[in-house]
């Protein structure tokens, strides 16, 4: 089977601390994979290795794409530029790719419209709410039409209601674009709503200790949250995680 992303025997140490691995992981084209695990288990380190921001200590992570800039990353803290307008922020990746300005503006405005931000194209991020800022970050990432989307707890800083709304929006978007996505989250609900697969990581050093496939056909909506199957899977995942979280609380913190 063709894989978009494959990690083999991947590990990462920070000084004397064994933070991650060994991890074996693969994503097939169009798949949305969520990774949950306790704080400090190496979830974000895994994503940073996938993004090329951190090198593995041992093992390999390969991305198989046809694009010279295959991956786009979305962080928890938005990662948008306060001195650029909303339009310029969304256009930023296209400018780096040297897309002609007229085409870049058209694509950026299209994504702003899809994210409900068309009226804010000329505003600056300081004028936006947290949810709107995260929408700008998502629009910027998707505007470059990445083959792989890497998301590091993008909704963690938002209140519960807004988080639910953005989960549903992302669900609708990614089902339409079928962008291969690796999504890091602390939220079991988020993982079940969004994921084709949910991977559970152990306490440090983070390893994949379980995999579950939410039993919901696509296209799906946030209505699955009210089903008995959703509640049952959330309980099962929490049973898996509870011991890992307890173990994590008895170890010193290192970079996640």
UniProtKB/TrEMBL annotation:
Single GO MF descriptor: ATP binding
Domain ABC transporter: 5-228
Pfam families xrefs: ABC_tran (PF00005)
Segments passing through the bilayer: none
Lineage: Bacteria, Bacillati, Actinomycetota, Actinomycetes, Kitasatosporales
Keyword check for Transport: yes
Organism encoding this protein: Streptomyces xanthii
InterPro entries in alphabetical order: AAA+_ATPase, ABC_transporter-like_ATP-bd, ABC_transporter-like_CS, ABC_transporter_ATP-bind, P-loop_NTPase
Keyword Transport: yes
Protein name: ABC transporter ATP-binding protein
Keywords recorded for this protein, A-Z: ATP-binding, Nucleotide-binding, Transport
């Amino acid at each position: 089977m063709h894989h978009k992303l494959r990690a083999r025997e991947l590990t990462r140490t920070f000084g004397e601390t064994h933070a991650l691995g060994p991890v074996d992981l693969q994503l097939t084209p169009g798949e949305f994979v969520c990774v949950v695990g306790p704080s400090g288990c190496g979830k974000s380190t895994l994503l940073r290795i996938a993004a090329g921001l951190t090198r593995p200590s041992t093992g390999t992570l390969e991305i198989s794409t046809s694009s010279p800039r295959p991956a786009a990353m979305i962080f928890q803290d938005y990662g948008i530029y306060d001195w650029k307008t909303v339009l310029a922020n969304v256009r930023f990746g296209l400018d780096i790719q040297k897309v002609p300005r007229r085409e870049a503006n058209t694509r950026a405005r299209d994504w702003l419209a899809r994210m409900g931000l068309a009226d804010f194209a000329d505003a600056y991020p300081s004028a936006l709410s947290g949810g709107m800022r995260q929408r700008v970050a998502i629009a910027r990432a998707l505007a470059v039409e990445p083959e792989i989307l890497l998301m590091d707890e993008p909704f963690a800083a938002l209140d519960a209601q807004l988080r639910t709304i953005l989960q549903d929006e992302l669900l609708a978007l990614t089902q339409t674009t079928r962008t291969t996505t690796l999504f890091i989250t602390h939220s079991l609900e988020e993982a079940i709503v969004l994921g084709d697969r949910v991977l559970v990581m152990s306490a440090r050093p983070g390893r994949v200790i379980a995999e579950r496939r939410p039993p919901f056909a696509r296209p799906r909506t946030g209505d699955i949250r009210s089903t008995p199957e959703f509640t049952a899977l959330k309980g099962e995942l929490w049973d898996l995680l509870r011991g890992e979280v307890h173990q994590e609380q008895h170890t010193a913190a290192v970079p996640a």
